[in-house]
Specification:
It is built from 15 helices and 17 strands. The chain is an alpha+beta fold and 460 residues long. The protein has three domains: 123 residues, no CATH class; 115 residues, Rossmann fold (3-Layer(aba) Sandwich), CATH 3.40.50.10330; 144 residues, Tumour Suppressor Smad4 (Sandwich), CATH 2.60.200. Strands 1, 6, 7, 9, 10, 14 and 17 form a seven-stranded antiparallel sheet that branches. A six-stranded antiparallel sheet has the order 13-12-11-8-15-16. It is globular. Bound molecules: adenosine-5'-triphosphate.
């Protein structure tokens, strides 16, 4: 074990012990304050979570009086439990116990982070491009191309800039192919993830490097590449002081994707013409029929031949998302694992909604796996899909595959890097970390010393 790995293991052990201490203190404070009423306090808290989840389900899946009842439950349950604690004069104990429990959770997560060394991507030697061509969308990210003066900065570094004419729909695939025919030796995009995927596919097809300029609104792809999303002009450093990575490219119905394909209610709703003008109202109007299966496509799917049943919603991603993070920022620890991430979700009633609220990703409503091929069928000839944020209608069956290492990607040598994804909570692992024999067989991927050293250099 190296000195830094030993330091990390020691920190993980300290944090795991602190987490257990906080959890124990949370229990002691509660029992000391509430005595025999402690189980009731915990039960009341859990009941509030369950009732609020049922309320949320009724809001989403029903209309009229049941939706109203759902609203009352979702708001009333947390308020009710607060009033109950206040009435029993248990406020200080409950607050202190919750604060300690929160501290315990935070320490536990930190301990797991220290114990997990994500494998850095392998960096390949490469020479700077001589004739880079960058496609820029002046409308992306609310006008970041102009705001960050990207055209002038890129041209000053010797790049040819192709500015999209957003008054009409331009075929970016043809623009990218033309740029290569004109002699470009690197393609890049300052724009949304959908545009990134189309141009990345052309780059992969011709074996030239691709470059991402984080000028979109969400920039999910740029985030998982570890680029600076606050200042897209920093991405241009890849032209002069860059390194090359090899990453995977997803393919759905023969079309490339860099992040995610979604099927189900979300994909159906965003295709409604009225969605652009009234997002929340359209979602609330459409969700009940979609969730209860009265309208919309009934999906069924198979991952590498394993049936996934008939999920209500299905996400297929280019490499799996960190589960603990899926509903938050949505982060993929790596983009070169050579597999698709698959998440199927099925909630058909209030009980399952409550189970999902209590057990999260461990709930029976969630199914996760990795696969090389996912085939999605529906009860119609076509199905709505969101591909890297673009609303599309695809012919069924829809085949999703992955092309491992298909894309050469050039990123700045000095970039913020990918923050480690929040680990899934596992108290048994915390106990082992705190008191088990120290070892270096952590949950890391098998990072080699040289990889780690290169990544440290890469992330500055
Ligand atoms: N190929 C294209 N030709 C012409 N205009 C385009 C093209 N692609 C996108 N646009 C226009 O640019 C706008 C913004 O594009 P895009 O969706 O790529 O960026 P974004 O919304 O900022 O990114 P994100 O995917 O991160 O949300 C679109 O709403 C559309 O008006």
């Amino acid at each position: 074990m190296t000195t830094s790995a030993r330091g990390s293991a020691a920190s993980a052990r300290r944090l795991a012990r602190l987490a257990l201490l906080c959890a124990l203190a949370a229990l002691v404070v509660l029992i000391a304050g509430a005595g025999l009423r402690s189980p009731l306090v915990v039960l009341a808290g859990l009941a509030a979570v369950v009732l609020a989840a049922i309320g949320v389900w009724w809001i989403l899946a029903h209309r009229g009086p049941i939706r109203l009842l759902g609203f009352l439950l979702a708001v009333g349950a947390p308020i009710g439990v607060i009033v109950l604690y206040a009435g029993g004069d248990l406020w200080p104990e409950v607050l202190a116990s919750m604060a300690l429990w929160g501290g315990g959770l935070a320490s536990a997560r930190q301990a797991l982070r220290h114990d997990t060394r994500p494998r850095p991507p392998r960096i390949r030697p490469s020479t700077p491009p001589q004739r880079p061509a960058l496609i820029m969308n002046p409308k992306s990210g609310g006008g970041k191309v102009e705001k960050f003066d990207l055209v002038a900065k890129a041209e000053a570094l010797g790049a040819r800039v192709i500015l999209l004419d957003t008054s009409t729909h331009q075929d970016v695939t043809t623009l990218a192919r033309q740029a290569l025919a004109d002699g470009a030796d690197l393609l890049g995009v300052a724009g949304g993830d959908g545009t990134q995927a189309l141009v990345a596919a052309v780059a992969a097809e011709h074996g030239v490097p691709f470059m991402v300029i984080a000028a979109g609104t969400r920039n999910h792809f740029a985030m998982d590449l570890g680029l600076d999303r606050a200042d897209p002009s920093r991405s241009l450093d890849a032209l002069t002081d860059g390194v090359e990575l090899r990453i995977d490219l997803g393919e759905v119905a023969g079309r490339p994707f860099v992040n995610l394909v979604s099927f189900g209610p979300y994909a159906e709703i965003v295709q409604k013409p009225e969605y652009r003008d009234a997002k929340a109202a359209t979602a609330l109007a459409e969700l009940p029929d979609l969730l209860l299966g009265y309208t919309g496509a009934r999906l069924s799917a198979e991952a590498d031949g394993t049936p996934l049943g008939d999920p209500q919603a299905l996400l297929v991603s280019n490499n799996p998302y960190a589960m603990a993070d899926l509903l938050a920022a949505g982060r993929r620890p790596r983009l070169d694992g050579g597999v698709l991430g698959v998440v199927g979700l099925k909630v058909t009633g209030a009980a399952q909604a409550a189970d999902l609220a209590l057990r999260g990703e461990r709930s029976d409503s969630v199914r996760t796996m990795t696969a090389h091929e996912v085939v999605v069928t529906a009860d119609g000839d076509t199905v709505a899909a969101g591909v890297d944020g673009e609303a599309l209608t695809l012919d069924t069956p829809v085949r999703c595959t992955i092309r491992p290492g298909a894309l050469r990607i050039r990123v700045p040598r000095n970039r913020p890097g990918v923050p480690p994804a929040p680990p899934t909570m596992d108290w048994r692992r915390i106990r082992r970390l705190a008191f088990g024999p120290g070892d270096d067989s952590s949950q890391s991927d098998t990072a080699t010393e040289s990889d780690t050293a290169t990544q440290r250099g890469a992330t500055g």
